[in-house]
Amino acid sequence: MKFLKFVSIIFIPLTFAINLDCIFDYQRSDFLGEIYFCNVTNNFTITAPETFITSVNGTHLPTLDNSYVQEFYSKNHIVNFMPYGLTKFFPNLAEISILNAEMKEIHQKDFQQYPNLVGFNLTNNNITRIEKDLFKFNPDMSFFAIWHNPIKEIHPKVFDQFYDVFDRPFWFEINYDNCTGDDKYIHESEIQKNILKCKPQHYFELSDDKKIDLEEIDENIEKYKKKINKINLDIAELKNEIFVLVIFIPLTFAINLDCIFDYQRSDFLGEIYFCNVTNNFTITAPETFITSVNGTHLPTLDNSYVQEFYSKNHIVNFMPYGLTKFFPNLAEISF
């Protein structure tokens, strides 16, 4: 007589633990101003979904602790999937930046653990799909950057929740060379009619009016061009009739600047060399020219390496003129 043997198989999900070392410091956020952040310094790898962060180490600035941390910043670490458990250490996390990480995918459940999230930066990763209701549990989201990802599918409803909720724009930054996908996702022909426009290195502002008719906008632009041309013709005729020559001589003012030259992190360009203005200066008139820039550069560097001009707590009523004379490769300006 044969006996049947029953074997119970219990599936136990594998979990992975990750320990992080942080440098804690302040940095400037475009949306929250000066914020306290954790910059991960040790080499760590996340190659499986739902990998939990189990410890965070690092020396805080005086009187501060984990509860003050508002941004988690990781660059050049392999993070294929969103980390889990960060809010256990940083309960007030508002921004997450995971750059150059080979991240493969993001899902709604990944963001559910961050209810206070305001900004999310995934520049230089391998994300291909933006799914529906991605930010359903993040009502305060204001900024989402996915520069340099091979995006193929963007669900047309992904941003719907923001149209009536925000009294400010929702910034969405993306660049991609091709727009393809099935019927559930926006592709090139649909993008031309809807919110997004399929152009590399394009910057989008999603405002309260989600029904944008691009053809109507183009028609209005042509109408305004015709009006401007007519105004120019009227001005030319008026000059011929009056025979009065009026010469406007703009007043110019000279400003001398002292800079501390150093490197800092830019959300868009990575590590950049910048000029931090230290002397007290004031600009109270239009077309005020910067006539000299002084300061000691880091070894082997000069003005041509400067990519950001940074001025804080100075009276600058009007944009300064002449900066490119000193910094020909300027890419960012911060006042």
TrEMBL record:
<keyword id="KW-0175">Coiled coil</keyword>
<dbReference type="InterPro" id="IPR032675">
    <property type="entry name" value="LRR_dom_sf"/>
</dbReference>
<protein>
    <recommendedName>
        <fullName>Leucine rich repeat protein</fullName>
    </recommendedName>
</protein>
<feature type="signal peptide">
    <location>
        <begin position="1"/>
        <end position="17"/>
    </location>
</feature>
<keyword id="KW-0732">Signal</keyword>
<feature type="coiled-coil region">
    <location>
        <begin position="207"/>
        <end position="241"/>
    </location>
</feature>
